[in-house]
User: Fold this.
Amino acid sequence: MSKILIRGAGILGGRPQDVLIDGGTIAEVADTIEPGDAAVVEAAGQILLPGLVDLHTHLREPGREDSETVLTGTRAAAAGGYTAVHAMANTFPVADTAGVVEQVYRLGKESGYCDVQPVGAVTVGLAGKQLAELGAMHDSAAGVKVFSDDGKCVDDTVIMRRALEYVKAFDGVIAQHAQEPRLTEGAQMNEGIVSAELGLGGWPAVAEESIIARDVLLAAHVGSRVHICHLSTAGSVEIVRWAKSKGWNVTAEVTPHHLLLTDELVRTYDPVYKVNPPLRTATDVMALREALADGTIDCVATDHAPHPHEDKDCEWGAAAMGMVGLETALSVVQETMVETGLLDWAGVADRMSFRPARIGRLEGHGRPVSPGEPANLVLVDPAYRGAVDPADFASRSRNTPYKGRELPGRVTHTFLRGRATVVDGKLT
Amino acid sequence: MKHHLISAADLTRDDAVLILDTAEEMARVADRPIKKLPTLRGRTVVNLFYEDSTRTRISFEAAAKRLSADVINFSAKGSSVSKGESLKDTALTLEAMGADAVVIRHHASGAPYRLANSGWIDGSVVNAGDGTHEHPTQALLDAFTVRRRLVGRDAGMGRDLAGRRITIVGDVLHSRVARSNVLLLNTLGAQVTVVAPPTLVPIGVESWPCEVSYDLDAVLPKSDAVMMLRVQRERMNAAFFPTEREYARRYGLNGDRMARMPEHAVVMHPGPMNRGMEITAEVADSDRCTAVEQVANGVSIRMAVLYLLLGGNESAAAHTSRTDAVRTEETE
Ligand SMILES: [Zn+2]
Assistant:
C-alpha cells in the first residue's frame, strides 16, 4: 500500500503537525515530514481525529434491504467519519445465532468502507424469554462482545440478571434499550406539556429511568458490565452519575439528536421527528450535554435508523420510529458540544472514538494518533457551514430531521487502515 | 378564518363568535319548510371517516346537503390503513376528484394536520375528531349551546362567554372533546375547570388554560354549565379507576349533585351517554340536560363552518338573504 502524508492538520484539535501513513499504520508524526513518494493531503485548518466508532447502528441487512444494506450503511458511516460501527441485532432474521452474526460480519468485510462489528441479541428473537446463544456468538468469527435486544427492552428482571452474569465469562456487555413496556404502551412521544396538548400517547421519562435504576443495581450485584443505550432524560443522567459514583461498571451513550432536538418539534406532526426514545424537553437536552461533557455519559452513538420514505410519509401514529444519523453526527456534536465550549476536539475524539471502542472492546479502533497505531483516521473541516441535503446521503434512506438545516463541519477524508474511503468529501 | 379547521386553537375570539353567529343564521334555515340553501352548489365535500362515528358523519352530511354541496361519504375503515399509505393515497384520489373540503375523522392524533399540511391536498380540511387530540366542531356546538342557554338566542349574537364558569367532568386524558373545549371556551372568555380522577388527567395539563380539580362536589355550586364526558368501561380494566360503582359515586352526575348546581346551570353531554355511569337517567332526561339540543346545534355549527371555509369570510346574513331570493325563484 502506498504512503499518504497528511500535512498541517491539528491532531485532536492541537497544533498543526504532519502525519505519515505507510500501509495500514501511522508511520510518523512530526512538525514537518518530507513527502518523498507519499501522496500529499493538504489539511491546514483541519482537525485530525481517530476514526469514529459507533456503538449503535441499524444496518437493516438481512431483511430490510429496502431501508439500508451493510454496503450502503457502511458507505454512510465512512462519509460521516466512522471507521467502525456496531450493527444492531434487530434484523430479519434476528442476529441471535452465530450464523447470522457471521453473515453480517462477512458483509462488513466485503464492503470495505468501515469495520462492522455485529451486536448479538440477548434473547431468542428479541422476545425477552430465553437467552440467545451468547457464547456461540462470542466464539464465532464475528467475536461478539456487545449484546442487545435494542428496539425492545430486556424487561424480565431475571433474564436481565442472567444475561449480565453470563457474559462475564468472555468480558461481554449488555447494552440495554431502557423502556419499561407497560409504562409505554401506545407511547408516541415524550409525556409532558406537548403530549398533553397534542393528544399523543406519552412515553414518560420514568419508563426509562426505572429500568436504568434496576439495571445498574443488577450489574452491581452480579459484578458485570451494563451499557445504557440512547439515554434521553435528565433523571437518567442522575442515576448513571450515582451508579458511577459507587464505582459500578455502567456506561452510557447519547444520540446526536437528543443533544439537539426537543419535543416541541412534534407540534409539526412530521414523523421525521418520531424516534425511540422520543425527543425530550430542553431541560433534558441541557442535562445530556453537560453529562457528556463531564463524562457521566461516555459516548455519542448515532442510533442510525434508516426507514424508507413511505414509512415516514404518513400520519404520525402510523409512522416508523427512528432517524438516520451517521452522516450528520459529527456536525451535530460540533454544534452542540464544541461550539458551546462544552467539549474540545480531544473530548470529541474521546466520546466518539476512544470510549466507544473501549466499551465494545474493539481492537484497532479508538487508538491514539501515534506512530505504530492503525491508520484509522478522519479529517474534519470545522469551518465549513452548509445546509443538510438528504439527496447527498450515502445511506439508502433519507429520514433525517436536518433537511435544509445548516450544520457546521464537514468530513473531508476518512482512512480505514490507511486506505482512503472518503477523499475531499466524496466516497471513493 | 384560516383555510382549515384542525384545532380549536386555530380560532381567534372573533372567528369563534363569527361561527356562532353564522350558526344562528343557519339555524333559522332549519325552521323553514325547505331546509336548504344553494350556497355551496357545485362544491364537493368529502366525509373521510377512518373511524366509525355515524352521529358525526350524519351531522356533517346534513350540514353539507343543506348548503347544496355534493357530498361523498368515504369510509376508509377496513381498508389497509396499517401503514398509513392509504391516508396519502386517499388524499391524492380526493384531490384528483376535486374535493373542496375534506371532513376527516381519524384514529390517529394529528392525521388531519398531516392531511392539511403535507401538500397532498388543496381543499379545506375539517377535523371531525382525531385520536385523543381534538374535535373542534364539537367544541363549537357546545359553546353555541351554552351561549343560547345562558346568554340567549338573539341576545347572544355577537357575544362571547366572558365570565361564565364551565366545568368539564370525566375522562379528560382520552377526550378530544375536552381538549377542544378547554381551548375554545377559554378563547371565548369562559373560566374552565376540568374535574376527573388524577389518572384521567394528562401529565402536562398545567399548561392548559383551565383549573384542575379532583373534587366534583366542590366545583358544582360554582358552575354555570357542567359538561359530562363519556367514560368507557374499558378504562376500568386498564386501572384508570377501580370499579364502575366507585367512578359513578365520585364523578357521576346524579339528581342530588345536580341540585347543588345553581338554578340556571345546564348539564351537557356530547353523547352517546352511559346512563348509570357518568350520568343518571334522572339527569339525562331532565330539562337541564342539553344533549338532544347539542345534536341539532351540531348541524347548524357544521353548516357555519363549511360555509365560512368554502363560501367566504363575510357574515352569512347578506348571503342568506340573497340566496333566499334565489331559492324563492327556484321554488316558484
Ligand atoms: Zn433502542
